[in-house]
Amino acid sequence: MLMENDIMHGITMTLLAGSLVLFAVEVEAGAPKPTGDETIRPADAQLEELWNEGEFTEGVAVGPDGAIYFSDITRDESPGRVLKFDPATGKTTVFCKDSGKSNGLMFDARGRLIACCGANYGKQALCHITDDGEVKVLVGKYMGKRFNAPNDLVIHPDGSVYFSDPRYVGPEPMEVDHMSVYRYEPDSGNVTRVTTDVEKPNGVVLSPPAAKTLYVAETNNGTTNIVEGEQTTPGRMTLNAFPVKPDGTLGPKRVLVDFGKETGVDGMTMDVEGNIYAAVRTAARHGIVVYSRAGKERAYIPTEDLPTNCCFGRGKESRTLYVTAGTGLYRIDLKIEGYQPATAK
Question: If I label 308, which of 16, 70, 249, 290 is the partner at 20 to 30 A Cα–Cα?
Fold first, then answer.
């Protein structure tokens, strides 16, 4: 997931959260209006800024109470935090003051907030953040070796958790031999590596109606701890689909979108019709891009700052898309309900 914007003289330097990607892009005031299929977005739909006082916002997720939770990641040794936005009052408060450098967030069917906590002085583990803000490690190692930097997650209707484990930033030594996608079974505590067929996995989502496809963003910026001025050679930037087998393992990869030399996808979510809402961070055309199951673009929601993640609300807000970008939180009303795999039947 991507991290940190520093703007000087119209040049944006972007850190991939847990990550860091450097490129130059002209910064324009404001974002253009959304375009594309009007069965997805109303003709007059526009992003609304809700809060913009963070350092680097990420991992937006909706709670059972309809509140919106999101990570605010720091770039140094100071603790990250989880914030909570209440749609009823419009107020944003601190839910967890030391998140263990949480990134991706999602609530399970039991109402527990599950978090991917990264490196750069974080917990490097899949964690449970309790209602009183305590961060408890669920699993922190694979085959006795510490994870690189758990980044994003999605919870299957059966309760298992798929999560990505790349490394974009952090001085900690890397113990695991590959940046992979894993499946965690909460009842047994077992963790299984489900694919090594991506160079550096980032966002992950499951398809409706029965979570039979896992979509994985491959976002390889070419470094595991970038520093300012470092010259890197990025690898693959793609969006991929994997069939989910009955035992939870994955079938062969299918590439849906290849971004070539442009920065690809960060976090993602889905609607009930199976469209993919991807936080795309290309220099020239960043924002939330809506893709069909086959990888065809259907709509585009521009963001002024580089986007990191998105999720749909619940209840009366089930057609509202929340977006983390830059240092803030945003929303936009759409025409299709979001898919919540953790509580799907």
Answer: 249
